Amino acid sequence: CTRGSRQRKDGGLYHLGRTLGRGHFAVVKLARHVNTGQLVAVKMIDKTKLDVMVEKVIQRLVQHPNVVHLYEVVNTPTTLYLIMELAEGGDLYDYILRHEGGVAEDTAKRHFAQIVRAVAYCHQLHVVHRDLKPENVVFFPQQGVVKLTDFGFSNLFKPGTMLATSCGSLAYSAPEILLGEEYDAPAVGEKWISFSLFKNLGVLKTV
């Protein structure tokens, strides 16, 4: 996906637009399929700075109604392009800013339940996300759902085996990760983060 367009392996073509987000190793841009007009999000990952094979494999593995769908992957020597469905409603971080006084408990419960289902499904596949935060929960108003995105820090785990890699976002890290200890990712890290994601940010008025 160059400044203008990018040829797909199947003959399709995307035209890149404005930047939707930017991280240490990746840029996410709005793109439009030239033939169909479909809007998508294209995550452009710098392969020279990050090993992206795990994210590529996991993103293809995880297929769930509450996980952002990966349409295809375009691989070049220096950049990996992940072409994904576009979240028209923005992310949970902006949603929180728009609802500083909190939202109705039923609404918060519905959003929370959808993310829990996505995380539980990942764990069934022995996939741990390791970066649950408001910016990685996105809204699809037309579908009436929220979805989990950005598997850049995700990994496969073996049940009963502890992980030691310290990763993710500091503000949402479990105590074990902050202390540099080994941790059971699905039992400790994800549960701690998914709970603090909603409670500590004040999404639930009554908690």
From TrEMBL:
The entry's keywords: ATP-binding, Kinase, Nucleotide-binding, Serine/threonine-protein kinase, Transferase
Segments crossing the lipid bilayer: none
Enzyme class: transferase
Reactions catalysed, as given in the entry: L-seryl-[protein] + ATP = O-phospho-L-seryl-[protein] + ADP + H(+); L-threonyl-[protein] + ATP = O-phospho-L-threonyl-[protein] + ADP + H(+)
Protein's name in the database: non-specific serine/threonine protein kinase
Residue span, Protein kinase domain: 14-207
GO-annotated biological processes: intracellular signal transduction
Family as reported in the entry's similarity comment: Belongs to the protein kinase superfamily.
A single MF term (Gene Ontology): protein serine/threonine kinase activity
Residues at which ATP binds: 43
One Gene Ontology cellular component: cytoplasm
Nucleotide-binding recorded as keyword: yes
EC number: 2.7.11.1
Keyword Endoplasmic reticulum: no
